Amino acid sequence: MNTLMSILVGVGLASACGLRVFIPLLVVSIAAHFGQLTLGPGFQWIGSNTALIGFSVAAAVEVAGYYVPWVDNALDTIASPSAIMAGTIVSVAVMTNMDPFYKWALGIIAGGGMAGLVQGTTVVARGASSVGTGGLANPLISTLELVGSVVLSILIIIVPILTFCVLVAVVWFVARRFLRKKQTVAVAG
Questions:
Q1: Could you report the per-residue pLDDT of 113-169, keeping only the tens digit for each?
Q2: What is the domain partition of the chain in residue ranges?
Q3: 59, 45 in Cβ contact below 8 A?
Q4: Is the dihedral of CA 89, 119, 4, 155 positive or negative?
Q5: What's 145's DSSP letter?
Q6: Which residues neighbour 178 within 8 Å (Cβ) at sequence distance 6 or greater?
Q7: Tens of pLDDT along 6-57?
Q8: CB count, 10 Å around CB of 117?
Q9: pTM of this structure
Q10: 18 with 170: CB under 8 angstroms?
Q11: Residue 2, CB half-sphere, CA atoms under 13 Å: how many?
Q12: Can you tell me the distance from the alpha carbon of 165 to that of 82, in angstroms, rounded to the nearest whole number?
């Protein structure tokens, strides 16, 4: 994988970490374990049997926790900083053929930043759902986040350019919609 492609894959996987912290790490572990993804120097451990088992257990616990009412909101408190760290690590792990300084700078800024942005959006959505429905719609939101994380993690590895373009379009659409809503509220207020 060339440098630009590895950056796209890294940022895409980091975005998926914003939806679920351990799903992208599990997908990367599986792909690396079976030789479908090359990891940068020092990150080959992610494809080990131990990491594969650890990420599987962590992903299962995380997914189950998001289906327990009100525990999901508590998990968001832990998941927010964890998503940023996981986004940074997973993006740096897949970036290849780069100077370590640039790799870590991109990992922290782009990877951690995207993971934090996506995680922040999910926290707001879950909070609004908890207030609006008393938490009854939270399992639906959890399911959408889970499916989004799995699909994004797999597709960004298989078809990185197309998936990254779709990801950018979705982020642009959501940001534009949010800004319009904010302007409408400001004008009405």
A1: 999 999 988 888 888 888 888 878 888 989 999 999 999 999 999 998 888 888 888
A2: 3-163
A3: no
A4: positive
A5: H
A6: none
A7: 999 999 999 999 999 999 999 999 999 999 999 999 999 999 999 999 999 9
A8: 18
A9: 0.87
A10: no
A11: 3
A12: 26
